[in-house]
Amino acid sequence: MFLRQLEYLIAVIEEDHFGRAAERCNVKQPSLSNGIKQLERELGITLFKRGRGQRLYGITEEGQKVSKWARLILANCNAMHDDIGDMKHNLQGRLRIGAMPSMSPVLPIILQRIRSAYPGVSVDVHFVGNDELKVSLDKYALDCAITYSDHEDEMSWCNAQPIFEESWSLLVPDSFEFEKIEEISWKDASKLPFAMLRSSMHERRLIDNIFRRLDCQVIPKIESESILHLMFQTQYTELCTIIPTHFTRMPGLLDGTKALLLKEPSVEKTVSLFWVKTDNIMPMPRIAEQIAKSLAETGELQKYLY
Q: Could you give the CA distance from residue 174 to residue 244 in angstroms, rounded to a whole number?
């Protein structure tokens, strides 16, 4: 068995196509197919469901089991190379971070600290939903993820390092109606016309739960997966939207808008770094954890954002 064969296996699973998998692995398709067949012969199982003409129809139950081991083996192999590089004070490689879209203004601060401490490391950022974050961590497709700590029960197989506390504000048009107001209750906010994140997004579900507990029903006029787009809606129309309060600092308020702190209830959510529990923490999650811990202990990020 060779590591290359395991790479072929994962590529076929993720691409769902032998040709695209071969292109991704920079080999000819016959070479990839032969590598997969050799792996099947060595293990004495069939990894993929094939139809006429070797057409791919999915992965077998045995293939699913082997793929989990393959991801773990490849992750540990990469971690070994990274660890040796770190011992030589020459850590190279790629740190793959997943994050909620609302973290996009915060990440530059975190990533700048990582680049300063480890100039040989490049960072690959993936903005995805929380369900995909969990799946990608489990498959070792991500080294770590930044999301709300209220996922800890669902992610008991992960370590967590708190980074900062997030609060929410109501973004409104900067008009005479709100001229003398700096705060607003969730109940009063519910009476305003809204642009909101899509109902499938975790942040939206949290917001809906707050309104639901207050017996308030909010039906948005506009829905989007982009907080920046919602901010533009407030800038150019009569609609309001709910934003993480750190958006008032980074990227900053748009002309013609104003942020009101939401209260009654005052809501704060802990944002944490998550990574998979292993006997020895892998080098890439370790350096992210070091930076996150430093920012949390000094309160530097919290002070900067708020």
A: 18
| 8 A C-beta contact, residue 105 and residue 250 | yes
Q: What are residue 125's DSSP bridge partners?
A: 97
Residues 138 and 282 in one domain: yes
- The structural domain count of the chain equals 3
Give the type of residue at 297.
E
From first to last of its 306 residues, the chain has per-residue pLDDT tens of 788 888 888 888 888 888 898 999 999 988 988 898 888 888 998 888 876 655 677 888 888 888 888 888 888 788 777 777 776 677 788 999 999 888 888 999 999 999 999 999 999 999 888 888 889 998 889 999 999 887 667 788 999 999 999 999 999 999 999 988 999 999 999 999 999 999 988 889 999 999 999 999 999 999 999 999 999 999 999 999 999 999 998 889 999 999 999 999 998 899 999 999 988 788 899 999 999 999 999 998 888 887
Other CB atoms within 10 Å distance of the CB of residue 65: 14
DSSP E strand stretches across 179-256: 183-185, 195-197, 222-224, 241-244
**One domain, residues 97 and 210:** no
Q: DSSP label at 155?
A: T
Closest CA to 249 of 306, 203, 303, 300: 306
Residue 80 counted as domain residue: no
* CA-based end-to-end distance of the chain: 53
Rounded Cα–Cα distance for residues 46 and 27 (Å): 22
Say if CB 224 and CB 199 are below 8 A apart: no
Domain hosting residue 111, numbered range = 93-164+269-305
User: What 3-state DSSP class applies to 68?
Assistant: helix
Output the six-digit token pair for 275. 């990574």
Whether 179 is in a domain gets the answer yes
